């Protein structure tokens, strides 16, 4: 599987947190005592209306008099739901820890394998979000952290939520979605000049709250985090990094010391001509150095750590040229068109570009529209799907 440098912007976790309670793990029975009997009965009745055979119903309070969590079984299959205080079911999911019982879209499998290679699968939840749209929640363990990822029906990533390292099962903070008017007045005042997108309130174990707000200024999307007192503690500008190559010329003094040492030891009497560093999403991929002696040229290529990987003797010290070029839908390879027709039925290309290396396509970045939804969709040089993300 090709390694990609697509960054799943964490802001989109608003969609995840608004549709799920604190985690995929079942709520322990003792939480029932935290919910008053009348509210528990009302929530149970709501669940019974949609799931007449629901059994083993356990109701817990996510936020007092606002949002409740409910775990239950239907014919032995675990389910989870969130219900508002006015009796509206906000989300429902069937949950399993057996990956063979769920057929995930290939796009989800691709995303997990490329971005979380070696991950440990824990649970999958399949159901509907607060808008009634089909969605998938996948809980994995990756590098000692629990990561929950939410995908839509097409297999496009909508959100990610990463727990702190060492977080134990059952300790994940409770969360619920909120409107602008649900936020404290001092937070609302700080959002002046922003276009409010969404918010999530996290209730902490000490009864304090943390507020996560998604808001826009123009076309720039921000994640804003406020503490229990409404103090802004973090601002994150959400950017989508394109999976493309780029280059930058270097002087001899700009070269890493390990490369200088290699040239000094092996080409002591050669003259430095020019150098270039090649990056992929700001991560160094290669260093290329051209040197000369008695009218002859040698090009040395090093990996990102400065290890020599190739030596060439060109007629002149020409380096690869990287650039981006806009494309139209008519210029897309048939394999990409077929994929879009299958997965994003009714799509139209809003904007598209290709990354070129010496005029040879390295990757495709497409911004497509399906109804009111917009997606970034990435393909490699052969037109093979790499990743996708829904734009808010």
Describe the structure.
This protein has helices spanning about 15-20, 35-50, 105-115, 185-190, 255-265, 335-345; strands at about 55-65, 65-75, 75-85, 90-95, 120-130, 135-140, 145-150, 155-160, 175-180, 195-205, 210-215, 220-225, 230-240, 245-250, 270-280, 285-295, 295-305, 310, 320-325, 350-355, 360-370, 375-380, 385-390. The protein is mainly beta and about 400 residues long. It folds into 4 domains: about 10-175, Nuclear Transport Factor 2, Chain: A (Roll), CATH 3.10.450.360; about 180-240, Nuclear Transport Factor 2, Chain: A (Roll); about 245-320, Nuclear Transport Factor 2, Chain: A (Roll), CATH 3.10.450.360; about 325-390, Nuclear Transport Factor 2, Chain: A (Roll), CATH 3.10.450. The strands form 4 sheets. It has an 8-stranded antiparallel sheet, with helices on both faces. The radius of gyration is 26 Å and the shape is elongated. The two termini are about 30 Å apart. InterPro entries: PepSY-like. It comes from Arcicella rigui. This is PepSY-like domain-containing protein.
